[in-house]
Amino acid sequence: MHTPPFIRANRLKRLAEAEAHHRLAIALAVGLAALGLSLPFLKLSVSLIVTWDAFAISSLVLAWLGMLLTDPQARVREAHLQDSSRTAICFCVVLASLAGLLGAGVLLGAAKDLQGGEVLRHVALASLTIVSSWCLVHTMLALHYTHVFYCPCEGSSPDDAGVGLQFPEEEYPDYLDFAYFSFVIGMTFQVSDVQVTSRGMRRIVLLHGLLSFAFNTIILAFSINLAATLL
């Protein structure tokens, strides 16, 4: 049966407006489904990596739907009253991404003892894990920057919003502005044209820069390992 376009649009909008804990629940359900489907056919270690990839990719899709289809000011203000665990969810996902990277390392290590198509499948899965984990970290931190910017503290008033970051010629940045800020730190370990103007935000940026350095160092080590595996 053909679904009318307006119904599909409404479903997409509901997904885009889902709060952090709802997105987490959906992504966990997708990951558990991937575990159940892959476990009978794959080794446990490989199946767990597939589970993480399913979780990470579904989290990315849901996060970017919200970033592209919703207004950050209205969405964050509403979420501030409902979702007190947003910060905890953000950093749990970041830590889980580190675990995903370690899993990719184990996968690449196991690939050395394989031959032919098995090696390529392990390398492809490890590469997907690395890319999805890296993107998920900086996407989650972009959402966290948005939340802190528009809701700097518990009980804050609308006049308090906008403290901590100063975007050039942009008083009310959107999600893509925060994604730009987050991914620049992820790639360069520093800020660019966006000024950090509060102590609390500087602490988050410092932690983000340290995490980015650690992630990129691990990814460099994996790249060297990958080259050694394929040669």
From TrEMBL:
Record-annotated membrane-spanning stretches: 21-42, 48-69, 89-111, 123-143, 205-228
Superkingdom of origin organism: Bacteria
Keywords linked to the UniProt accession: Membrane, Transmembrane, Transmembrane helix
Protein name in UniProt: DUF1345 domain-containing protein
